[in-house]
Amino acid sequence: MTSVLHVGSIAGVPQELSRAQRRLGIKSDIISFQPHPFDYEVDFFRPTRLPFPLRYIERMASICKIAGDYDILHFHYFSVLPFAVDLPMWRRLGKRIIFHYHGDDIRNRGEGMLSCKYADAVLVSTPDLLAWSPRAKWIANPIDLRKYPYIGAENDNRKIRIVHAPSVPKVKGTEFVLEAVEGLKGEGYEIELDLIKNMPHQDAVEHYKQADIVVDQLLVGWYGVFAIECMALGKPVCVYIREELKKYLPATGPLMATSPRNLKEDLRRLIENEALRNSMGKTARAFVEGSHDADKIAEHLIKEIY
Q1: How many angstroms separate the Cα of 281 from the Cα of each of 141, 230, 234, 244?
Q2: Could you read off the pLDDT tens digit of each residue along the chain, which spans 306 residues?
Q3: Which of 56, 102, 106, 217 has a CA that sits 20 to 30 A from residue 159's CA?
Q4: Is the same domain home to 151 and 281?
């Protein structure tokens, strides 16, 4: 039977894949060497205590104790050692190597030399990253839909709650969100801006459930896991989508494609039109069910990638 060890913890993606693989009867676990601000659950948490560069020896010692129990090593973001110099060893030990890029680990730099040579498969989490690896395959970020019941965007209160999760404010374009909201408040709109920062993921999701409108990133050009979770809940999501990437989305428009320049007007449209908010939320939920279901993605990985 195939067995998988996910190495790393990024945006909850290893967690969703691992749990879905278990539901399909696959032995699948996660090892992480550093805490995540959202407290994502891992099976083997092995924090390093030694200073650089000795911490890498510590990490290798930790993973070597359990790696023999797995056929596949699925690396997220980085491998264990700098510049992926551990990959030749894993190949000699007969491991199948999957390298899964998630953002600035490949954006504007391309694949590392050793991952190019030794990875059996290269995956990217968003389609904009395909430009940095000619052989990569795009695997949409997964979520367990059972954890995100459809709630919708009906509002019984006059005040509109806008939720934004600026994990990295400069990357997310948070300054433009603040500017747009303050401008609308100045026009008399009753708005509560809920900025989600530095809290456990489970607590953050409770905030998402209370949203009337969600704003994801405004600069990168594609939507993230935060947007997927909110769409699953039936929330209308505003996000910047680069023009050349719109072909990867259905024409029905599960998201409101916006920009720093247009955000204020797009928020105004959603604030004034509850029917539009509800319609977008229903479309978004259907889109996530078809494109981001963790069980379907895990099955695809097992049958087509591993």
Answers
A1: 19, 9, 4, 24
A2: 689 999 998 888 999 999 999 999 999 999 999 887 777 889 999 988 888 888 999 999 999 999 999 999 999 988 999 999 999 999 999 999 999 999 888 888 888 888 888 999 999 999 999 999 889 999 999 999 999 999 988 777 778 999 999 877 777 899 999 999 999 999 999 999 999 988 888 899 999 999 999 999 999 899 999 999 999 999 999 999 999 999 999 887 799 999 999 999 999 999 999 999 999 999 999 999 999 999 999 999 999 999
A3: 217
A4: yes
The domain that contains 157 carries what CATH number? 3.40.50.2000
C-alpha distances in Å from residue 302, one per residue of 46, 65, 288: 27, 25, 20
Domain carrying residue 268: 147-291
Q: Which residues contact 51 (CB under 8 A, 6 or more apart)?
A: none
Task: Among 95, 123, 139, identify where a domain stops.
Answer: 139
Strands 96-101 and 72-76: parallel
Ramachandran area for residue 74 (φ above 0: left; ψ -120 to 50: alpha; else beta) = beta
Nearest to 80 by CA among 90, 71, 95: 90
Nearest to 77 by CA among 3, 11, 130, 170: 11
Taking alpha carbons only, the member of 225, 221, 230 closest to residue 254 is 230
Same domain, 80 and 14: yes
Nearest CA among 53, 35, 43 for reference residue 17? 43
Cα–Cα distance measured from residue 33 to residue 51, given in angstroms and rounded to the nearest whole number: 13
Asked if residue 161 belongs to a domain, the reply is yes
Q: How many CA atoms lie within 13 A of 91 on its CB side?
A: 15
